[in-house]
C-alpha cells in the first residue's frame, strides 16, 4: 500500500465507494446518547438489537457477536455437533476458505469441502458431486469475491432442499444480506427464512461499528451464546457496537434499492470505457467489481492525482491472473450516491489510464 497516497485520504472531501471515509466522530455519532449499556451481552441495547434482528429475519432468536468469523464458526460447530458430522459444503471462494487462516479446521477439527466453479455462484447441479453426508451447507449471499453475484432464486431454494434431504443444516453467510435483499427484491426474512441459521454483518453494507448477529432457533442461538464466551467474544460491555448497528440498520436498510439503482447507473456509465470491464454486468446487488486494463503503478499514480483533487477512490488495486489487468471492488453507499455519475465515469476513466 502506498503510504503517501493513504496520507492524502484525510484531506479528501468526497469518496467514490461505500459510505465514505470512516471517521471516528461520524462512527461515534451512530451511538445515540441514551443508549442503555449491557453487561456481558445481557440487556440494554444489545438485547434490543437482538430482538429487532430476529424479527427482521423472521427467526425465533438472535445473538450479537463481535465478529462474523466467530459467529459462523460457532453456528457451524453447533450444527456439526448436533449431527455427529464434520464436513461443511461451501463455495471455493467462501470467506471461511479465503480469509480465516484455516480457523475452522485448526480450532474445531472440521472440514470445509469446496464445491462448484470458483468463477460463478454455487448452483444446485454442483451439489451432485457430493456423495458424503455433510453437517451443513454454507451459502454466501451475495458472493462478494465474485462482484456481488447471486444464484437464481429457484436454484437457491433447491440448494437448501438438497441439504435438508441429507439431514444437513442450511446456513446463510449473510454478511451482505441487506444487499442481497435488494438484488432479489425480497425481504430479509424471505431470504433468511430458507435457512436454519443466518449471519448478518453491521459494519459492511450499513456502515456501523464492527459487530454482527447470528439468528436461528432458540436452542441453536443459546449454544452459540456459549461458544461466544468460549471464543472470547462475550465482552464486558458490547453496547457501543450494538447501538451503532441499530442506528445504521434503521437508516440504511431502506436505502438498499437506491444503492442498487446507482450501481447499475455506474455500470451503464463506464462499460463503454476502453480497458474497463464491469463484473457482473449488470450488477445484481449494490456492489460491483471493475477490471481495469492498467498496471498497478499507473493505477496508484492516478488514484493519488484524484486524492490530491479531493476525491478518494482506492488505496490500491487487487492483482488478477493477467499482469496487465487490476481489479477493484466498488460497494455502493451514501458516498457513491452523493457523487454525480459523470464524476464517477471520469474517475474510473482516469484510473484505467483513459482520463
Main attributes?
Threonine aldolase, Aspartate Aminotransferase, domain 1, PyrdxlP-dep_Trfase_major, 15 helices, single chain, Aspartate Aminotransferase, domain 2, alpha/beta, about 350 residues, four-stranded antiparallel sheet
Describe this structure in words.
Keywords: Pyridoxal phosphate. InterPro entries: ArAA_b-elim_lyase/Thr_aldolase, PyrdxlP-dep_Trfase, PyrdxlP-dep_Trfase_major, PyrdxlP-dep_Trfase_small. The chain has 355 residues and is of the alpha/beta class. It has two domains: 3-21 and 255-351, Aspartate Aminotransferase, domain 1 (Alpha-Beta Complex); 24-251, Aspartate Aminotransferase, domain 2 (3-Layer(aba) Sandwich), CATH 3.40.640.10. Helices cover 41% and strands 16% of the residues. The chain has 15 helices and 13 strands. Strands 2-8-7-6-5-3-4 form a seven-stranded mixed beta sheet, sandwiched between helices. Strands 9-10-13-12 form a four-stranded antiparallel beta sheet, with helices on one face. Strand 12 (318-319) and strand 13 form a beta hairpin. The chain is globular, with a radius of gyration of 21 Å. The mean pLDDT is 96.
Can you tell me the CATH topology of the largest domain? Aspartate Aminotransferase, domain 2
SS element count, helices: 15
Rg: 21 Å
Main beta-sheet strand count, sense and barrel state: 7 strands, mixed
Helix content: 40-55%
User: Order of strands across the widest beta sheet?
Assistant: 2-8-7-6-5-3-4
CATH superfamily membership of the largest domain: Type I PLP-dependent aspartate aminotransferase-like (Major domain)
Please, how many domains? Answer: 2
- State the separation between the terminal residues, measured CA to CA: 23 Å
InterPro entries: ArAA_b-elim_lyase/Thr_aldolase (IPR001597), PyrdxlP-dep_Trfase (IPR015424), PyrdxlP-dep_Trfase_major (IPR015421), PyrdxlP-dep_Trfase_small (IPR015422)
Domain Aromatic amino acid beta-eliminating lyase/threonine aldolase: 38-287
Organism: Blastococcus saxobsidens
Family: Belongs to the threonine aldolase family.
Amino acid at each position: 500500500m502506498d503510504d503517501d497516497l493513504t496520507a492524502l485520504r484525510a484531506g479528501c472531501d468526497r469518496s467514490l465507494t461505500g459510505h465514505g471515509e470512516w471517521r471516528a466522530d461520524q462512527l461515534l455519532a451512530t451511538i445515540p446518547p441514551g443508549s442503555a449499556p449491557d453487561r456481558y451481552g445481557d440487556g440494554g441495547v444489545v438485547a434490543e438489537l437482538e430482538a429487532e434482528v430476529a424479527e427482521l429475519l423472521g427467526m425465533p432468536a438472535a445473538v450479537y457477536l463481535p465478529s462474523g468469523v466467530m459467529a459462523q464458526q460457532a453456528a457451524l460447530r453447533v450444527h456439526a455437533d448436533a449431527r455427529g458430522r464434520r464436513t461443511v459444503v461451501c463455495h471455493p471462494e467462501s470467506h471461511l476458505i479465503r480469509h480465516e487462516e484455516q480457523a475452522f479446521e485448526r480450532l474445531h477439527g472440521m472440514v470445509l469441502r469446496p464445491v462448484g466453479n470458483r468463477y460463478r455462484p454455487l448452483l444446485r447441479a454442483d451439489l451432485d458431486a457430493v456423495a458424503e453426508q455433510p453437517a451443513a451447507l454454507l451459502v454466501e449471499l451475495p458472493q462478494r469475491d465474485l462482484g456481488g453475484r447471486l444464484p437464481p432464486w429457484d436454484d437457491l431454494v433447491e440448494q437448501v432442499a438438497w441439504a435438508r434431504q441429507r439431514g444437513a443444516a442450511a446456513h446463510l453467510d449473510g454478511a451482505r444480506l441487506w444487499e442481497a435483499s435488494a438484488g432479489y427484491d425480497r425481504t430479509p426474512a424471505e431470504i433468511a427464512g430458507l435457512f436454519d441459521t443466518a449471519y448478518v454483518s453491521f459494519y459492511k453494507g450499513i456502515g456501523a461499528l464492527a459487530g454482527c448477529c447470528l439468528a436461528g432457533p432458540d436452542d441453536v442461538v443459546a449454544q452459540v451464546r456459549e461458544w461466544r464466551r468460549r471464543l472470547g467474544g462475550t465482552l464486558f460491555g458490547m453496547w457501543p457496537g450494538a447501538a451503532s448497528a441499530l442506528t445504521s440498520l434503521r437508516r440504511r436498510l431502506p436505502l438498499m434499492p437506491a444503492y442498487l439503482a446507482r450501481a447499475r447507473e455506474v455500470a451503464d456509465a463506464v462499460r463503454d470505457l476502453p480497458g474497463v470491464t464491469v463484473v457482473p454486468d449488470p450488477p445484481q446487488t449494490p456492489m460491483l467489481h471493475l477490471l481495469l486494463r492498467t498496471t498497478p503503478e499507473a493505477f496508484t499514480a492516478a488514484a493519488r492525482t484524484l486524492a490530491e483533487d479531493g476525491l478518494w477512490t482506492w488505496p490500491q488495486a487487487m492483482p488478477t491472473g493477467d499482469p496487465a489487468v487490476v481489479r477493484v471492488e466498488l460497494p455502493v453507499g451514501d458516498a457513491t450516491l452523493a457523487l454525480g455519475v459523470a464524476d464517477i465515469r471520469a474517475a474510473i476513466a482516469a484510473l484505467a489510464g483513459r482520463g
